[in-house]
Backbone:
């Protein structure tokens, strides 16, 4: 007995690029491959650069070094939050690749490389070889992705997870379009479900990607009367959605830093925002996203391209890819509007490649319009408006180039000279090489992670505590005497810039120490800046300088003490 369904028969396959098989010139493969090789080489250059860990990286490193795998699923020291899959992978690489800082960062490099390669694959399916070439170039030189290829943070892995999920869903729909066999459909749906189940633990943003892309894909399938495929896609997304929801619930059980709304001022609307407030927030949000992590100028141009790209995909028979990208965008916007997940900065790196694929599709559409116009002029086709179309297409391409050039230039600069956040490792190396018996090292309190990682963990340096300025009511002046007891010289180290303290905070600490001795040496990395990182050496056996620097009295910083 044959089952009767109401689903329409599969339509002819229009999902693959038109130039298939032997007709596809080999130079197109080579061109995209060359861009990928250059992009991955740039990522390796950033990853391999000799830069020390900065404070946020050390927060994670201390957890990876000191906690077991099961402990990493619980609350982390320094109130850190990271996906458990990424933590497991980073710890595995740390032990398997030698236990140095580059091994800690290897997961970031791998995530960036996967993101770049899958960008090319997805763009080729959704746009064609020209779109793959352009999207790959934009992602390869994106300063945001390049930076996180060499940092001990999960953001490039989250970007890779987004591309894996989008590509897996798109390929599932395309494969189902080529066959009418229900058994193969559900076999492919099971493979998609397993993919989502494996990928979700590596990314908190995966739940947004899966929810949004699934909704967009199901909508397209329902509009094209492919109800069976829509049902299979929706069911295949359930394991990833359940895993993501569990991760989010688990995350909410831990202490979360309370300054997220200050760190991402454009990524969230104001608290209790009404409809008009949300509308006013949208341009600010988009400008913030265009600037960081994309590094584009002219956010309006980027917005036009990102909207035009999926429209062009749909018009060219690639509606499923347009639905996946559009659904992701709507879900990400909803998460930001609810003040749950910002659309700005490092947290939004998972949107970087999808946005640039959409922008590449918009640029590709403009180029195609220009090509069609040239052919119309050559053939004398009066039905086409050649002058207006050619002018609009040329303007779109030129404006896209103007908007994207700062990002490409910044990415190239990032490869030439990878960004160096904090010089903590170099500062400790310099101090350790000059230590004498009777020396102690006292850190600025915000440099605690550097002391834990490079001072107490990597070597046994004499670190009795951390300086801070407090009010007279809360001060414990005896703590300074205890910390410096028996010391002949004290090194005051600030391996990180001030965090919410006055810009002259460091000078005030040095002035307080000058009451006990004399400054005999100092090395500041940026001496023209009052909050420069570096060190100051005070000889406690020498008399104070007769003419010391004075500061206006401030009751909040009236007393120097030491915390452990």
Residues:
């Amino acid at each position: 007995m044959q089952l009767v369904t109401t689903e329409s028969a599969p339509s002819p396959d229009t999902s693959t690029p038109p130039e298939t098989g032997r007709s596809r010139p080999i130079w197109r493969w080579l061109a995209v491959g060359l861009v990928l090789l250059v992009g991955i080489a740039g990522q390796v250059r950033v990853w391999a650069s000799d830069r020390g860990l900065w404070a946020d990286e050390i927060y994670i490193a201390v957890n990876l070094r000191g906690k077991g795998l099961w402990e990493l699923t619980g609350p982390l020291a320094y109130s850190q939050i990271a996906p458990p899959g990424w933590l497991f992978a980073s710890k595995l690489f740390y032990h398997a690749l030698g236990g140095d800082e580059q091994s800690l960062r290897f997961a970031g490099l791998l995530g960036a490389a996967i993101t770049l390669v899958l960008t090319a694959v997805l763009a080729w399916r959704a746009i064609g070889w020209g779109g793959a070439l352009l999207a790959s170039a934009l992602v390869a030189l994106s300063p945001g992705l390049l930076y996180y290829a060499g940092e001990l943070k999960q953001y490039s892995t989250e970007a890779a997870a987004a591309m894996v999920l989008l590509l897996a869903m798109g390929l599932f729909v395309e494969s189902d379009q080529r066959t009418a066999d229900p058994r193969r459909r559900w076999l492919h749906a099971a493979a998609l479900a397993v993919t989502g189940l494996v990928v979700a633990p590596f990314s908190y943003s995966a739940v947004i990607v899966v929810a949004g892309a699934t909704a967009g894909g199901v909508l397209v399938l329902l509009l094209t009367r492919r109800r069976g495929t829509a049902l299979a896609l929706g069911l295949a997304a359930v394991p990833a959605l359940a895993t993501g929801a569990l991760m989010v619930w688990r995350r909410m059980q831990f202490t979360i830093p309370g300054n997220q709304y200050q760190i991402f001022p454009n990524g969230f609307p104001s608290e209790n925002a009404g409809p008009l407030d949300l509308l006013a927030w949208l341009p600010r949000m988009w400008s913030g996203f265009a600037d960081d992590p994309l590094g584009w100028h002219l956010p309006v141009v980027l917005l036009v391209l990102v909207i035009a790209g999926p429209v062009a995909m749909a018009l060219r028979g690639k509606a499923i890819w347009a639905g996946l990208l559009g659904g992701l965008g709507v879900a990400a916007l909803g998460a930001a509007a609810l003040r749950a997940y910002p659309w700005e900065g490092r947290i939004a790196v998972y949107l970087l490649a999808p946005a640039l694929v959409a922008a590449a599709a918009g640029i590709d559409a403009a180029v195609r319009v220009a090509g069609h116009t040239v052919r119309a002029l050559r053939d004398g086709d009066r039905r086409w408006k050649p002058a207006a179309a050619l002018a609009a297409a040329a303007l779109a391409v030129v404006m896209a180039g103007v908007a994207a050039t700062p990002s490409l230039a910044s990415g190239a600069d990032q490869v030439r000279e990878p960004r160096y956040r904090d010089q903590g490792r170099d500062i400790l190396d310099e101090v350790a090489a000059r230590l004498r018996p009777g020396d102690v090292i006292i850190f600025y309190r915000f440099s605690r992670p550097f002391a834990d990682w490079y001072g107490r963990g990597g070597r046994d340096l004499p670190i009795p505590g951390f300086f801070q300025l407090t009010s007279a009511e809360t001060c414990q002046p005896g703590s300074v005497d205890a910390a410096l007891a028996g010391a002949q010289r004290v090194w005051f180290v600030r391996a990180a810039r001030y965090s919410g303290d006055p810009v002259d905070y460091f000078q005030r600490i040095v002035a307080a120490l000058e009451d006990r001795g004399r400054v005999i040496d100092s090395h500041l990395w940026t001496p023209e800046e009052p909050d420069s990182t570096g060190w100051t050496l005070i000889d406690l056996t020498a008399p104070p300088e007769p003419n010391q620097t004075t500061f206006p009295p401030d009751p909040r910083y009236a007393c120097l003490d030491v915390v452990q």
